[in-house]
Structure formats: C-alpha cells, structure tokens
Automatic annotation (TrEMBL):
Signal peptide: none annotated. The lineage of its organism: Bacteria, Pseudomonadati, Pseudomonadota, Alphaproteobacteria, Rhodospirillales. One of its GO terms (biological process) is tricarboxylic acid cycle. This is Citrate synthase. The keyword Transferase applies. Keywords: Acyltransferase, Transferase, Tricarboxylic acid cycle. Belongs to the citrate synthase family. Pfam families: Citrate_synt. NCBIfam families: cit_synth_I, PRK05614.1.
Length: 402
C-alpha cells in the first residue's frame, strides 16, 4: 500500500501534464496572450501598437519596469544601455577558442554563460542594484556579442559598438561593417531590424523562458540563466524555426511543388511538418506574423528585391494551407517565424544567425521574467514531479551471480 500523501504532498493530488499544456508554472504581470483571439499584449499594450509606435529600447524599459518611459526616462535608459555596450577584452579572446565553422548559437551559449566570470559585481541576485545592472548589461552586450559571433565565423575583425547609433542600427553596423568599409544601414532597414526585435521581445512562458525561470529558481546567476535560455531556444521546434522555414522553402524550390509538401505535412507516417506553422498557444493568426509580413514587404522594397523566390513560395504556401481542411481543423496558422527568415536573408544574414537574432531580442523578456521571479517573495525552487514507470523494487543481485 502506498501512502499517496508521502509521494504527492498533503493534498494527495498530482498533475501529470507532459509538455505543460494546461499547467501554469507561475503568475506573471508581463505578457498576456489570448491564443484563440490572436492577442498579444505587453504590460497591457497591444503588440501592434508597440511595434508601430515604439522603438525596441522603449519596449525593453516597459518589460523591465512595468510602464513605458517618459522622455527623460527614455533618455536616461538609452544612456545607461549605451554605457554597457562594450565587452571585456578578455571575453573577446574567448571567441578564438571556437572553431571558425562553429554554429553561432553554440558560441552564444558559451560566451553569454561566461559573462558571469567577467562581471562579478552583478551576480548577487539578492541585491536589487546588481540585478538591475545585470539586466542592463545583458540588453546592452547582446548585440555586441551576437555581431562578434558572426564576425568570428566569417573571419572578419570585431567591430566596436558605436554609442551614437540606435540599438538596431549599431547592431547592423557592427555586423556588416569592417574597419575598411564602414556600413551604415538605411533608416528603413534599421527600423525593420528594430521591429523584428520588438516582435521577439517576450512571449510569456515558452520553452526558453520557462528554462530561464527554472534555472533561476535555484538562484543561479542571471548570466548563467540567460545562457540556459539560449540553449533551449536553439531547437527547431522553438527559436530555430525561422532557420528551418528558410531551409524548407529552399527544399520546396518552386510553387508547383507546394502540394507535394502539403501532402507530406499531413501524412502521419512522415515526420515532415510545415515549419513556421502552428503554435502551442495561438489557435488563430499569430499577431506578430502579420506585422512580420508587412515588414517583409518594406525590406524587400527598400533593397530593390523583386520576385524574391522564397517570398512567392511562402505566400502561396500560406494561401494553400489556410484553405486546407487539415490545417483549418487543427488551427495551424503561420507563426512569427514564417516570414522573418525571408527578411533576415534579404538583409544579408546567413541562416545560422537567425536564431541568434531571436536570442538577442528575447534577452529582455528572459531577464524581465527572471527579475519578476526573483522579486516574488513566494518564489520557490522549481521542482517538477514525475510519474515513475520503471521496475518496481527488486532484490539486489551481486555481480558474481548476474
Ligand atoms: N505541420 C503539420 N502538422 C502540424 C504542424 C505543422 N507545422 N504543427 C502541428 N501539427 C499537427 C500535429 O501533427 C498534431 O496532429 P495530431 O493531433 O493529428 O497528432 C497537431 O497538429 C497538434 O500538434 P502538436 O505538436 O501536438 O502541437 P504543439 O502545440 O505541441 O506544437 C509546435 C506546437 C511545436 C509549434 C508545432 O506546431 C510545430 O512543430 N510547428 C512547426 C515548428 C515551428 O514553426 N515552431 C515555431 C513555434 S513559434 C516559436 O517558437 C517562436
């Protein structure tokens, strides 16, 4: 006889919920999603309003502090972030330990985790000032570190940040410029990059954010927690999807071949899925996907790219899938990643950098969620239970008798 209270606590209740499809692991005041209606709000503001009217740093301030900044607060915040954009010179050496063909996400997991070895004055999670500095450092240094990951893999010299440039503009400058050929993105491209960052800033308790919270629940330092989030984001079912979308569009190759791939996506004996389609929470059009599609047109127009082959395939694929009973019935709509890969490719990013850009933008969401958790007086270490399905108790057999 098993005393269930000993196993499952005083209540005797135990929830078995693989994939956490209906279990809330925390309460949070940061992001609201209504998946059936296709609504996403940060601190009460609709994502559409934020994407159209704010810049990324304003959204960072909002996520971190709970309110949009006034003009003075915005100015101060921008100054604080730009103050922290440089990375320690020893950290720059860290990159050279990687192979040149390393995936930039592998580099990011390593170097972001290593930040805690460089910034000892922002690892005391119980000091509010240190928590704040850690958040500012992470937001400020991610573009520098992401651009360095790219530069390392293409064998070009690192570019130092320019604090007179905007957040997205500076990132593009560090990524695509060289000391011999400085690169200055057009305002339209900088704005598009900034908008992509806003659209990825937070999305409540997805796999990577839950990972950050779980790592942080043991009071690990914030840099280590964000590194764990980057690792969780890497997978193609999560942040790696935009890379996977582009690979899929390349594999499809032409509009004529779409029906063949739709058929494969519906075949239960085939592991193929339409990448960029479906979402655990949205059972309607992802509101970010609509803004991403608009941004896609703006960027292609700015770059003078006409008849982009991937865009033609993506649009036709979306049209066919949205009319197909399989996708309609399962409520599978394009998600935020469906169009972002086309934009990023047009801007000149290799596919291996797509998830890095997602991590850069999501860092503010991760650190805001981490901060909210640490500041909750009721915070507990995360410790999921399990349903044991292994061998029952058995007698030990000494090695000689096995
Ligand atoms: N193509 C074809 N069928 C799909 C797809 C798809 N993209 N997504 C889900 N389905 C089907 C499943 O086969 C399943 O069918 P069944 O009920 O007959 O078994 C049903 O829809 C439900 O799918 P689940 O995997 O159970 O749904 P879940 O909520 O666990 O998964 C996920 C959501 C992982 C996003 C899934 O839709 C998927 O793999 N999509 C493709 C990858 C992708 O685009 N990921 C990005 C997500 S957004 C982000 O992370 C930023």
């Amino acid at each position: 006889v098993i005393d269930i209270r000993k196993l499952y606590g005083e209540t005797g209740y135990f929830t078995f919920d693989p994939g956490f499809t209906s279990t809330a692991a925390c309460d949070s005041a940061i992001t609201y999603i209504d998946g059936d209606e296709g609504i996403l709000r940060h601190r009460g503001y609709a994502i559409q309003d934020l994407a159209r009217n704010c810049d990324f740093l304003e959204v960072c301030y909002l996520l971190l502090n709970g309110d949009l900044p006034d003009a003075q607060q915005k100015d101060d915040f921008e100054r604080t972030i730009t103050y922290h954009t440089m990375v320690h010179e020893q950290l720059a050496k860290f990159y050279s330990g990687f192979r040149r063909d390393a995936h930039p996400m592998a580099i990011m997991v390593g170097v972001v985790g290593a930040l805690s070895a460089f910034y000892h004055d922002s690892t005391d999670i119980f000091d509010p000032l240190q928590r704040k500095i850690a958040a500012h450092r992470l937001i400020a240094k991610m573009p520098t570190m992401a651009a360095m990951a790219y530069k390392y893999t293409v064998g070009e010299p690192f570019m130092y940040p320019r604090n007179d440039l905007g957040y997205a503009e500076n990132f593009l400058y560090m990524t695509f410029g060289t000391p011999c050929e400085p690169y200055m993105p057009s305002p339209i491209l900088s704005k598009a990059m900034d908008k992509i960052f806003i659209l990825h800033a937070d999305h409540e308790q997805n796999a990577s954010t839950s990972t950050v919270r779980l790592a942080g629940s043991s009071h690990a330092n914030p840099f280590a927690c964000i590194a764990s989030g980057i690792a969780a984001l890497w997978g193609p079912a999560h942040g790696g999807a935009n890379e996977a979308v582009l690979k899929m569009l390349e594999e499809i190759g032409s509009v004529e071949r779409i029906p063949e791939f739709i058929k494969r996506a519906k075949d239960k004996n085939d592991n193929f899925r339409l990448m960029g389609f479906g979402h655990r929470v949205y059972k309607n059009y992802d509101p970010r996907a609509k803004i991403m599609r608009e941004t896609c047109y703006e960027v292609l127009n700015e770059l003078g790219i006409k008849d982009e082959p991937h865009l033609a395939i993506a649009m036709e694929l979306e049209k066919i899938a949205l009319e197909d009973p399989y996708f309609v019935e399962k409520k599978l709509y394009p998600n935020v990643d469906f169009y972002s890969g086309i934009i990023l490719k047009a801007m000149g990013f290799p596919t291996s950098m797509f998830t890095v850009l997602f991590a850069l933008a999501r860092t503010v969401g991760w650190i805001s969620q981490w901060k909210e958790m640490i500041e909750d007086p009721a915070q507990k270490i995360g410790r999921p239970r399990q349903l044991y399905t292994g061998t029952p108790a058995r007698e030990f057999v000494p090695l000689a008798r096995r």
